[in-house]
Design a protein that fits this description.
Structural class of chain A: alpha+beta
Distance between the termini of chain A: 43 Å
Distance between the termini of chain C: 9 Å
Oligomer: heterotrimer
Radius of gyration of chain C: 24 Å
Chains: A alpha+beta (380), B alpha/beta (354), C mainly alpha (327)
Structural class of chain C: mainly alpha
Helix content of chain C: over 70%
Strand order of the largest sheet of chain A: 1-2-3
Strand content of chain C: under 5%
Largest sheet of chain A: 3 strands, antiparallel
Number of helices of chain A: 12
Shape of chain A: elongated
Shape of chain C: globular
Number of helices of chain C: 14
Number of strands of chain C: 2
Helix content of chain A: 40-55%
Strand content of chain A: 5-15%
Strand order of the largest sheet of chain C: 1-2
Number of strands of chain A: 5
Order of helices and strands of chain A: HHHEEEEEHHHHHHHHH
Largest interface: A-C, 42 and 53 residues
């Protein structure tokens, strides 16, 4: 008779039916399939691509420059292009009426009234204020432009008479990069310390864990405020930009590092790592060949997920006047003027940068979620 | 009319999984019978659909899985023609009442099959309270009795324990006690000893045999282990890629395996007394992907007795090759004599005797 | 159990101490001190005389003492519940905080209760109806909710409230009710004012609870013990509410510290925008003016709160989960 306890040889044991079966497609392809299936993630990434393009081509999209002021139009409500004139005639090409400033004889206040005599048509791909793209391509072509004395303010102006629509895209340059810079910094800190702590353990691990414990005991926003107050007020706006990135990442790296450490800690006991150690592989080789590749996709997912918090952090700090300083601008700084309730109630258009903040945060959340699903293609 | 001698008759059962990557025919036309009080062993590799068959009987297959065809006739209740479980709504009260009280199941993973937040007593009592009209105190008494039956030391203390405080073997005893607490007429045991060490395995198998005798229930014993099958089963159904390829009584299967797959399985096992320097036989090739099942006989790409032009085009049917022995293979069908180019069927080999 | 609690409490103590040092140092770290920032502000108001009393002021506030000395004096008093005085508000930190603890707790608690009592059932519904239309809708709403910064929402609600009622609903009371005895009208007025901040923070909170609950429950529903429960004929409703939900509440409870952090975060900028009489509003000013004892105390207490929240969560988990209890 057959001896009891004999089982089928390993070569016969195939994958289970209920596990996602991948014999035919590669992991990479499966990741892509998973990601593609997540419609929201796709929408998020498309929105982000457009946002970053808009930030790069800020000068092109906005009709006016970053610091261009229109003295006669402080706190102006949106002046929109129109298709139908005063007499009700339709024009396919959008136009604006020039505004004339008059003193109201009854109230002695300055009021803007449109001069409906002359139509000023919008010019597309027209020459206007010079600007540079990516810091080296100099040009003066704008997506649309209207010649003086007419003005076009799609989203109104601030109290200094600067066009909010144009400034939002310049603001995007800062708001959308501060998160990336911040995340890259915490990625470097967090990954190095997490891997070192998880792999080697010992005193280094204990000390770094304690520091992280203290850091993550504080809610982010109060800590951001305290750290942002540390930045010397004399610093230039570029220095401030990097300082804010550092502040954001200082608060953020701890959580990331903990997760990396946890993963490395678990992987350290995996058979293939033990096998590598028995094969006398060096620590460096084990870390770079086995631990990093296996944690990389998760690390990138965690990083993507923490970008929204950074965008929010920058917005909050700049909103309170602790973040980005002029002459730079950011969405948070643009919102700074909306901080005072009375101002906001009279000029609600000042809140429009918030829509961009929200759109970018939601898009990053969508993207992060899609990436997380994709990074773990075997999960249900 | 006397009660039917079978407790369960499954015929042409098809359970398919509609996944994004395509349809997986996990169970694809399975038929077998289980006698009252008898034991059917279902033998097969992981992924052959044997567990899904068990889940299908209890209607525990959840979307994207679905029973697409076939009958599962259960004769445990006093209905004249039995009940076709495949026709009952899986979420219905009727089906819920069947689970646990008529048909119970024991699973492969005793470590994770119990809710970690409740005591084992609570979990056994839960099974009793949902099926029997008894008070909590009575349910508790039954739970203690059942634990005693499965040889748990100090059952009165044990019912207060949480799952994590018990070893794997102990937890499997709890699972068995829970499954048997409502005296089901059929127990589906899905690899109940796979996760246990050999000594514990032997004890659990012994226990199951004794309890079967005492309670008179039928057992459907799902396993990939030939040794366990030999010890437990009276009848054996061999499954390959969602189909039963051979079914017979245990004696006949081991002395006269007929399907090339069964033969290959038998040969791939080391035998006492075999020459030490001989290489162990393996089945050539790999189990094909369940999404990409070969045409014709699903085993043909790996078969040693493959008949060109037949095995790869036509699907063999399960037919009786000798009394009480069924096989689905063209080698045993009539009219194959014309294929002079093919080798004659290999003579049945006896295994393990020498 | 008692030993477990004791062990956890002891483990937390060094972190509490580190938080104290860290909080104090962060507030001390900016260049200059309260006096410098005071003089700059006076200068801004056109008062150039303030610079003359600089040294006098500094010695009066004991800011001329070395940092370590002030820290030791302060920490010794801190341990006895005396947090020092605020330079700017000319009052003890204790009084300032106790004036504001009521409103702070009221809005935080209301937000917490509302977001959990909406988020949990919705999360359960979403998970038990996975991939249904309702689930897809809720999941999308959750995502949008998580992306809405509370203070921007508060601003938007403020405009909306003004357009609907013609009132600027900042603060927690209309001026007419200040210092009045309690009345129903006053309570209604308070509720009206609470609506904006609570709603602004509740949206993110509910979204978060819902998302965590859905994820946890889906994870639990895929576990083996659920199959066992189904196989023994337990009704699905019982499986979900008695077993799966109980198991999936654990990660939520474990995140109690995080929840406190979220409440503090949520009301930090919202409070400032809406001029609420909360502790968070004082915090920003104190930080900017280098009012070290006030700002430091708040930062340290916030850190303590989160840490103690985590500790409490651990103890609650141990009480609920036999696996930890019997460790």
């Amino acid at each position: 008779m057959v001896a009891t306890g004999d089982t089928l040889p390993d070569s016969l044991v195939g994958p289970d039916f209920d596990a996602a079966e991948t014999a035919v497609i590669s992991v990479r392809r499966l990741m892509w399939l998973r990601f593609k299936r997540n419609r929201l993630a796709l929408i998020g990434s498309v929105v982000l691509v457009f946002m970053y393009l808009a930030a790069i081509f800020a000068g092109f999209i906005g009709p006016y420059g970053l610091r261009e002021t229109h003295e006669k139009f402080p706190a102006s409500p949106p002046l929109l292009p129109r298709f139908v004139d005063e007499e009700g005639n339709f024009s396919l090409r959008p136009f604006v009426y020039a505004m004339e400033s008059k003193v109201d004889p009854a109230t002695f206040k300055r009021v803007q009234t449109p001069n409906t005599e002359v139509k000023h048509y919008l010019h597309f791909f027209a020459r206007g204020t010079p600007y540079t793209i990516l810091g080296f391509i100099e040009t003066d072509i704008h997506l649309f432009h209207v010649y003086e004395p007419a003005k076009v303010f799609l989203l109104g102006t601030d109290k200094q008479g600067r066009d909010l629509f144009s400034r939002i895209f310049y603001g995007a340059q800062v708001s959308l990069t501060v998160g990336l810079v911040g995340v890259s910094l915490s990625l470097i800190f967090g990954t190095l310390i997490g891997i070192a702590g998880g792999y080697f353990g010992g005193l280094f691990d204990d000390v770094s864990q304690r520091i992280i414990e203290v850091l993550i005991s504080f809610p982010q926003i109060p800590l951001w405020l305290a750290l942002a107050a540390l930045i010397p007020p004399t610093w230039s706006s570029v220095q401030r930009f990097f300082a804010i990135s550092i502040v954001l990442s200082l608060v953020n790296w701890g959580g990331l590092s903990r997760q990396v450490r946890g993963m490395v800690y678990a992987l350290r006991e995996e058979d293939y790592v033990i096998a590598a150690r028995y094969a006398s592989a060096s620590d460096w080789r084990i870390i770079t060949r086995h631990l990093l590749p296996n944690t990389l996709s998760h690390i990138l997912v965690i990083a993507t997920i923490s970008i929204p918090a950074m965008i929010l952090g920058e917005t909050a700090l700049s909103f309170l006047g602790l973040g980005i300083q002029p002459p730079m601008t950011s969405w948070g700084l643009l919102l700074n003027q909306a901080q005072h309730t009375r101002v906001l109630i009279q000029q609600p258009w000042l809140l429009t940068p918030a829509l961009f903040v929200v759109a970018s945060i939601i898009s990053f959340n969508f993207l992060g979620d899609g990436l997380r699903d994709a990074a773990d293609p075997f999960a249900n | 009319m006397a009660a039917k001698s079978n407790i369960l008759e499954v015929s042409d059962l098809k359970t398919h999984f509609f996944t994004e990557q395509g349809v997986v025919p996990a169970v694809d036309g399975v038929s077998f019978q289980i006698k009252r009080g008898g034991t059917l062993g279902v033998l097969g590799e992981s992924g052959c659909g044997k567990s899904v068959t068990g889940f299908s009987i209890l209607r525990l297959v959840r979307p994207p899985g679905e029973i697409v065809a076939g009958q599962i006739r259960y004769y445990g209740r006093d209905t004249v023609n039995g009940d076709d479980l495949a026709q009952i709504d899986a979420t219905s009260e009727e089906m819920r009442q069947m689970r646990g009280s008529e048909i119970a199941m024991v699973f492969q993973e005793p470590m994770t099959s119990l809710d970690p937040l409740f005591t084992v007593g609570n979990q056994i009592m839960e099974a009793i309270l949902y099926h029997q009209d008894v008070s909590k105190a009575e349910a508790r008494k039954i739970a203690i009795e059942m634990l005693d039956k499965v040889r748990m030391p100090q059952p009165r203390e044990m019912i207060k324990k949480y799952p994590h405080q018990l070893s794997g073997g102990m937890r499997q005893r709890v699972m068995i006690a829970m499954a048997l607490s409502c005296r089901p007429k059929l127990l589906i045991a899905d690899e109940p000893t796979t996760a246990l060490d050999v000594t514990t395995e032997a004890q659990i198998l012994e226990l199951m045999r004794e309890l079967q005798e005492e309670l008179g229930m039928a057992i459907m014993f799902i396993t990939h282990d030939l040794g366990v099958i030999a010890e437990m089963a009276e009848e054996v159904a061999v499954m390959y890629l969602g189909k039963v390829v051979e079914q017979s009584d245990i004696e006949s299967l081991f002395t006269d395996p007929q399907h090339p797959y069964t033969k290959a399985l038998m040969q791939s096992i080391p035998k006492v007394g075999q020459k030490a320097d001989g290489r162990l036989e393996t089945i050539r090739g790999m189990v094909p992907s369940p999404r990409n099942i070969p045409t014709g006989c699903p085993f043909h790409p790996r078969c040693a007795s493959f008949l060109q032009g037949i095995c790869d085009t036509e699907l063999p049917q399960l037919k009786q090759s000798k009394p009480g022995h069924w096989v689905s293979c063209f080698l045993y069908e009539d009219g194959n004599a014309g294929h002079s180019s093919t080798p004659p069927p290999a003579p049945p080999q006896s295994i393990g005797e020498g | 159990m008692a030993r477990y609690i004791l062990r956890r409490v002891i483990a937390v103590l060094p972190t509490l101490f580190l938080i104290t040092i860290f909080g104090f140092l962060v507030m001390e770290a900016p260049a200059g001190d309260y006096v410098t920032s005071y003089i700059i502000r006076q200068y801004g108001h056109g008062n150039t005389e303030a610079a003359r009393i600089e040294d006098e002021m500094r010695s009066l506030l004991a800011l001329d003492r070395p940092v370590y000395e002030r820290f030791v004096t302060w920490i010794a008093r801190f341990a006895q519940g005396d947090f020092g005085d605020s330079f700017d508000l000319r009052d003890s930190v204790r009084n300032i905080l106790s004036d504001r603890i009521g409103p702070t707790l009221t809005i935080s608690l209301a937000t917490f209760v509302i977001s959990w009592s909406i988020g949990i059932p919705l999360g359960v519904y979403s998970a038990t109806h996975q991939y249904s239309k309702a689930d897809n809708f809720l999941t999308t709403v959750t995502f949008v909710g998580l992306g809405l910064p509370d203070f921007l929402l508060a601003l938007a609600f403020l405009i909306l409230g003004w357009q609907l009622t013609g009132e600027v609903l900042t603060g927690l009371q209309s001026p007419a009710f200040v210092n009045q005895p309690w009345s129903l009208a006053m309570l209604l007025d308070l509720l009206k004012h609470m609506l904006i901040p609570v709603l602004a923070v509740v949206i993110t909170g509910t979204a978060w609870v819902m998302r965590v609950m859905r994820g946890n429950l889906l994870d639990q529903l895929g576990r083996n013990y659920i199959v066992t429960l189904r196989a023994k004929g337990v009704p699905e409703r019982v499986i979900i509410w008695k077993h799966a939900v109980k198991n999936s509440l654990h990660p939520l409870i474990a995140a109690l510290g995080q929840t406190l952090a979220w409440l503090i975060n949520g009301f930090t900028i919202t409070s400032i925008v809406l001029e609420l009489p909360t502790i968070q509003t004082v915090y920003l000013n104190a930080t900017l003016q280098q009012d070290v004892y006030l700002a430091g105390t708040i930062l340290i207490l916030i850190g303590f709160l989160v840490l103690i929240g985590t500790l409490l969560a651990d103890i609650m988990l141990a009480w609920m989960d036999p696996r930890i209890r019997y460790e």
